[in-house]
């Protein structure tokens, strides 16, 4: 099972809210659920998947290793705990959530540990998140580009990460865009609203379609059935080359996920 291009993000969703979001998401057609150890909702995501009418093997599940668990032994133990919470014997994709701040844990150590948990059958695929070019090059030197299923990074019309995206394309590494709607800011952009009107769509659908037409995976989150359905419908929207180029002019380097303590040295 390859990673579906359209996924459901669960960042900031807790308790019954995340259960309802995942259950509804699966009902309306989502087959890729993205969570993380630090989100504190793996158990609820696991419950929602278990309670859905869709078999676990038809749902692609991603989780991420938090920075406190990057040491070789801790990484495996933490993933085993995640699997218990998610009620599964393996996940489909395990990512390093952020590079170790100030290289407190050497990159080769946690990348090799990530390969080890894949070889042990705890995850089908491995990858990284929030890796700039310099650290992605180091990861490639350790495990090879072919081993890295994706690099999950913030990308939306206002932060297009072109230099990193171009490097990843050269290396054959897939890009997964998180915060694809820029915390809802896309809804207020004049250009996106105009393009949306031309397609009888929403600015959110336009932003998602723009990302997917570049080959990126997207993982927007929502708690409302109408929004979950509308986001998913963006996969059926096709933008013209002129519209794609126009949206490209919106880049202003507006990074929304940028905690000082985790800054990996952005490109």
UniProtKB/TrEMBL annotation:
Similarity comment: Belongs to the aldo/keto reductase family.
Enzyme Commission number(s) from the entry: 1.1.1.346
The NADP-dependent oxidoreductase domain, residue ranges: 7-250
Keyword Secreted: no
Record Gene3D superfamilies: NADP-dependent oxidoreductase domain
Signal peptide, first to last residue: none
EC category name: oxidoreductase
MF GO annotations: oxidoreductase activity
InterPro entries assigned: AKR, Aldo/ket_reductase_CS, NAD(P)_OxRdtase_dom_sf, NADP_OxRdtase_dom
Keyword annotations: NADP, Oxidoreductase
Protein name, as recorded: 2,5-diketo-D-gluconic acid reductase B
Species, as recorded: Cupriavidus pampae
Phylogenetic lineage: Bacteria, Pseudomonadati, Pseudomonadota, Betaproteobacteria, Burkholderiales
Pfam families: Aldo_ket_red
């Amino acid at each position: 099972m390859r990673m579906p291009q359209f996924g459901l993000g669960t960042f900031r969703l807790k308790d019954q809210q995340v259960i309802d979001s995942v259950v509804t998401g699966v009902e309306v057609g989502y087959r890729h659920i993205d969570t993380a150890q630090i989100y504190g909702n793996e158990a609820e995501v696991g419950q929602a998947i278990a309670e859905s009418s869709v078999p676990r093997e038809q749902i692609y599940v991603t989780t991420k290793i938090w920075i406190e668990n990057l040491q070789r032994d801790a990484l495996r133990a933490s993933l085993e705990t995640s699997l218990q919470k998610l009620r599964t014997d393996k996940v489909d994709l395990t990512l390093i959530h952020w590079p170790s701040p100030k290289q407190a844990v050497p990159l080769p150590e946690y990348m090799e540990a990530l390969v080890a948990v894949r070889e042990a059958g705890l995850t089908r695929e491995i990858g990284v998140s929030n890796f700039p070019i310099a650290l992605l090059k180091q990861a490639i030197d350790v495990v090879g580009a072919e081993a890295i299923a994706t690099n999950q990074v913030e990308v939306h019309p206002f932060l297009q990460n072109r230099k990193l995206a171009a490097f990843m394309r050269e290396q054959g590494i897939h890009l997964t865009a998180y915060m694809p709607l820029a915390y809802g800011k896309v809804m207020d952009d004049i250009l996106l609203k105009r393009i949306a009107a031309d397609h009888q769509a929403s600015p959110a659908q336009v932003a998602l379609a723009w990302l997917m037409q570049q080959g990126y995976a997207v993982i927007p989150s929502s708690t409302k059935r109408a929004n979950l359905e509308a986001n998913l419908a963006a996969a059926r929207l096709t933008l013209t080359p002129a519209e794609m180029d126009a949206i490209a002019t919106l880049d202003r380097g507006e990074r929304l996920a940028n905690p000082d303590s985790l800054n990996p040295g952005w490109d």
